[in-house]
């Protein structure tokens, strides 16, 4: 009932977020956290409390619901890293890709947070979801070379020749005009492709 009041102070909402840690039901905890996150002007301390409460949610579905709501806010670099850490604990590759996609769309990631994100994506058991997130990462505007290299290196963890090649082909235009380090990273990942057809396709894209 408290959360229905319009003019709650951040401190009050922070306390309520804290009490969600005692709610055993993932569903009810999620309802309260989403309500709290709908309040405008929450502080970094409140976001931090939400992250702490999310850690104990067992259901990937509910964890994802709260994380994607939280990501509508501008988070600090440390919080982005915590979100990525939590995302790496999701068992569902589908939900992992949903959260990582939301991070890419809504957060302005530092090089280290971006690298962590593509590492989480590359470590996924699903080559399909790995490549989907890595291809989304390549769409981020004004990517630095360091970030492009992180995507290419993460693609090296994908087993499927088809999906590795898809990511490399997305990176190829930047690699073609990029530095030697970028081309070296691309060639190193391309060497992991077993199929001569796919390998040829990847290498022709940067010639």
Write the layout of secondary structure elements.
Blueprint: H1 10-19, H2 26-37, H3 44-54, H4 60-70, H5 77-87, H6 93-106, H7 111-122, H8 127-138, H9 145-155, H10 161-176, H11 180-190, H12 196-204
Helix pairs in contact: 1-3, 2-3, 2-4, 3-4, 3-5, 4-6, 5-7, 6-8, 7-9, 8-9, 8-10, 9-10, 9-11, 10-11, 10-12
Protein architecture, described:
The protein is mostly helical and 207 residues long. Helix content is 68%, strand content 0%. The model has no long low-confidence stretch (mean pLDDT 94).
Number of strands: 0
Q: Report the sheet with the most strands, covering strand number, pairing sense and barrel closure.
A: none
Portion in helices: 55-70%
SSE ordering:
HHHHHHHHHHHH
Report the mean per-residue pLDDT as an integer.
94
What proportion strand? under 5%
Radius of gyration: 20 Å
Q: Helix segment count?
A: 12
Shape: elongated
Q: Which stretches are poorly predicted, pLDDT < 50 over at least 5 residues?
A: none
Short recap of the structure:
With 207 residues, this protein is mainly alpha-helical. The protein contains 12 helices and no strands.
Core attributes:
elongated, 207 residues, mainly alpha
């Amino acid at each position: 009932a408290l959360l229905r009041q319009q003019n709650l102070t951040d401190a009050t909402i922070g306390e309520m977020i804290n009490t969600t840690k005692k709610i055993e039901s993932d569903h009810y905890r999620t309802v309260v956290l989403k309500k709290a996150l709908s309040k405008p002007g929450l502080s970094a301390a409140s976001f931090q409390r939400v992250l702490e409460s999310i850690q104990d949610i067992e259901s990937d579905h509910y964890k994802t619901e709260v994380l994607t709501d939280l990501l509508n806010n501008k988070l600090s670099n440390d919080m982005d890293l915590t979100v990525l850490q939590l995302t790496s604990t999701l068992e569902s590759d589908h939900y992992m890709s949903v959260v990582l996609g939301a991070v890419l769309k809504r957060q302005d990631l530092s090089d280290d947070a971006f690298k962590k994100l593509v590492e989480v994506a590359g470590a996924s058991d699903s080559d399909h979801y790995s490549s989907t997130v890595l291809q989304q990462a390549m769409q981020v505007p004004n990517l630095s070379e360091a970030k492009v290299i992180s995507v290419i290196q993460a693609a090296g963890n994908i087993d499927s020749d088809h999906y590795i090649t898809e990511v490399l082909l997305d990176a190829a235009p930047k690699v073609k005009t990029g530095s030697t380090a970028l081309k070296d990273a691309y060639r190193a990942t391309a060497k992991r492709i077993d199929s001569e057809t796919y390998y040829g396709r990847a290498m022709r894209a940067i010639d």
